[in-house]
């Protein structure tokens, strides 16, 4: 029987960036990202939360504009939107007000998820990219570091969400940052120790991976790139010991804020590797958005897809799976 398909758009409203990716979702539960239909804007909604408890005024203006563009593009493609808000919207005192504004102006329903849900969805997304995923998933955004255990491609219990996002780390002094990282990671369940793999997810973590590839002039796909702890720690020492300007020059990083965040993320990863003692560090291209697809979007669209399936023309199978 031919597969039916429907277009959809997953919107991820984070503390640092706001991103939309368009997909075709198929009636067998798989999906495929649409070519050239991925959009990202650095809004920094969470830049001022540490000081004011509120969303950045400039960040809200940028987010308003970009979300309006996403809604317009979704209408053009006939795509259903599923929007998720993470740390900035759940922590800011005016987060609910911003969500209500987007609902009133654009009909955009923003689903604000808690940290444990974010950790579970990110881990589920990693499992969609590694069918036999085994170890710990660590997803760092602008506002939080979310961690979950995975075994045989399934997410296990005891997820964690720490206040260790890159915008928060930036706001801390050196001594405070080291203390905060140590104290929060010390609360991890013993089952997080000595994992087979540490899967790292998130924009700044991935930037570190791309910088490693660029330095070696390696065209290898970042997804699945792996390092031994010893080799990766040497790379992290290099990042942590350089100024943002040096990182930009030596690794081809174009944005100063990203280079600065790479330093702080390197410090965080060093402590994580020391504490957890993983056998291997693995970069993942899949994460929160794929988890949202598997857990929220596919079930939402499936009744309609099954109804369309009988009359759908032949379709190619998607590339992702729940």
Give the topology string: H per helix, E per strand: EEEHHEHHEHEEEEHHEHEHHHEH
Q: Give the name of the CATH superfamily of the largest domain.
A: Exopolyphosphatase. Domain 2
Low-confidence sequence ranges: none
Q: End-to-end distance, in Å?
A: 21 Å
What does this structure look like?
The chain has 12 helices and 12 strands. With 322 residues, the protein is of the alpha/beta class. The chain has 2 domains: 5-114 and 288-309, ATPase, nucleotide binding domain (Nucleotidyltransferase, domain 5, 2-Layer Sandwich); 131-283, Exopolyphosphatase. Domain 2 (Nucleotidyltransferase, domain 5, 2-Layer Sandwich), CATH 3.30.420.150. The strands form 2 sheets. Strands 6, 7, 8, 9, 10, 11 and 12 form a 7-stranded mixed β-sheet that branches. A hairpin with a 4-residue loop joins strand 2 (17-26) and strand 3. The model has no long low-confidence stretch (mean pLDDT 93).
């Amino acid at each position: 029987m031919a597969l039916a398909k429907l277009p959809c758009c997953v919107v991820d409203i984070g503390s640092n960036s706001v991103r939309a990716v368009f997909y075709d979702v198929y009636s067998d539960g798989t999906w495929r990202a649409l070519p050239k239909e991925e959009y990202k804007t650095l809004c920094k909604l969470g830049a001022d939360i540490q000081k004011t408890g509120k969303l950045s005024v400039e960040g809200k203006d940028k987010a308003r504009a970009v979300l309006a563009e996403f809604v317009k593009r979704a209408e053009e493609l006939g795509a259903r939107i599923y929007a998720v808000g993470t740390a900035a919207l759940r922590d800011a005192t005016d987060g609910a007000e911003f969500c209500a504004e987007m609902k009133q102006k654009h009909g955009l329903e923003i689903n604000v998820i808690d940290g444990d849900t974010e950790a579970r969805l990110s881990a589920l997304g990693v499992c969609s990219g590694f069918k036999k995923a085994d170890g710990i998933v660590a997803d760092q955004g602008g506002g939080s570091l979310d961690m979950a255990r995975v075994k045989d491609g399934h997410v296990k219990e005891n997820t964690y969400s720490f206040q260790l996002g890159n915008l928060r780390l930036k706001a801390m002094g050196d001594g405070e940052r080291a203390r905060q990282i140590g104290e929060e990671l010390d609360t991890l369940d013993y089952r997080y120790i000595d994992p087979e793999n540490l899967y790292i997810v998130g924009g700044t973590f991935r930037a570190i991976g791309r910088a490693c590839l660029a330095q070696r002039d390696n065209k290898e796909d970042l997804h699945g790139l792996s390092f031994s702890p010893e080799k990766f720690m040497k790379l992290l020492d290099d990042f942590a010991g350089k100024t943002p300007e040096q990182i930009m020059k030596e690794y081809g990083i174009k944005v100063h804020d990203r280079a600065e965040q790479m330093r702080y993320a390197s410090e965080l990863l060093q402590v994580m590797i020391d504490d957890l003692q993983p056998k291997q560090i693995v970069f993942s291209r899949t994460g929160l958005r794929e988890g949202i697809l598997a857990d929220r979007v596919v079930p939402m669209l499936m009744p309609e897809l099954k109804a369309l399936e009988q009359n759908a023309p032949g379709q190619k199978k998607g590339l992702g799976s729940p």
